[in-house]
User: What shape does this take?
Amino acid sequence: MTEKLTIRKIGQIALDEVSELVGCPAEGVIGIHKNDDGWIATVEVLEVGRIPETTDVLASYDVHVDREGDVTEYHRLRRYLRAQVED
Assistant: This one.
């Protein structure tokens, strides 16, 4: 990849890839940090849509993006209800 990797671009790569890999819509990036191999973006995904929306099942995924902008791995961190509040 010859294009400069910005935080915004890394987030978009992670959103697009995890959505395609998991087969569920990605709702947003909730964190990005750098590691020795590139970047790790945490993406929130809607796994099960329900009515009312407060009962939707969401999941957080870590998506590893290397220095060239390629996704090298991803994994689900946890599943939770949209209305669930973290401590």
Summary: The two ends are 39 Å apart (CA to CA). The mean pLDDT is 93.
